[in-house]
Amino acid sequence: MRTNPTRFPAIQFSIYSSFPYLSTSRRFRSAGMAAVPETAATDISTEPPVVDDNVKFGFLRKEMYTEKLSGTAIAYDRHVILCYKTHETWPSRVESSDSHPLPKLLAGALKARKNDIPVKTLLTICEGREDTELSDGDVLLFPEMVKYRGLKESDITSFVDEVIVRVKPWSTGVQETMTGSHVFVCAHNNRDRRCGVCGPILIKKFKEEAELRGLENVSVSACSHVGGHKYAGNLIIYSVQDEKVCGHWYGYVTPNDVPALLDQHIGKGEIIERIWRGQMGAPPVKKAQKAVEQTLPNGNDLEVSENDNQTNSTKEEKEKENGGGCCQGANGFSCCRDEKSETGTETEKEVKKPTGKLDFLTKKWEQREVFTAAALVGAVVTVAVAYSFYKRSR
Question: pTM of this prediction?
């Protein structure tokens, strides 16, 4: 016998209060409402499982520590870092975005003067926050450890000509000498999710650990992509070592590595070999890898391939599409050039053996030389034997 809920609402309430295990759909049907399918959205078995960002993109992802790092930094001799907005606002290609004219015009000016720049120069964007020592338009130069305040769009031409090309102080800019150590952590989320997940965590950890140690001379900033998404967390440390400004690249950095980077690298000038990628002014990977491979076991035994870890012209060309900021200057191709890298095809042609008719003639000539030599040897032997018989007959 079914109870009419409109006539006996109290009875219905009492029943379901006593038996709370009755299904929602059963209760709705008992109340005379439209039946709800038992396989409605409450069944979560068809929904994709939720994956933790740290497992998929962060410090627990499978690709961590799967490749050697030493020799994978970009080859460059000078670093220009433009302070501009925050890393959350940077589009994937901030150096070429029409919505961000300042970095675009600076990258374009560097490209236009690429043949005049005396050293290979790397351009990167870092955060410029009004409440910090770095503001929009400030330009940092390494290894000079110089900061110019407030670069404007109208000043770019004179800045590039005087400072980057002629390597002189900027006549219309205010120059400041920087001190201490400067850490730039890639947090370019719109370029690659791995950097977007790892970068902010590392920045926060660096600031916390530096504060615990009372290190007021350590500056930590988010920067745009520097090359090597798969090595996130990626960072560069500029500091004075042996009275010389050095820029060291680190990859596969986790929050657990931050104390050692502060204590050993910044505090004592000791490289953390396990996560070291290379440094400013280092030779390309082909030369550097052989020198450091035995002393820097920072990864497994996989070979470093040009396709993955290029630091010469091939890498810089691919960085335009897949890697870091804009690299300009002499001493080889740069990532902002439009020309395709030659990848050694001409050299291969030079060392190949002649083919076709030329190869055939070469082989014939070699055979003729062999026959001539054999004939000469035979003649000498014949004369010697004849002379021997002649002496015996006397």
Answer: 0.66
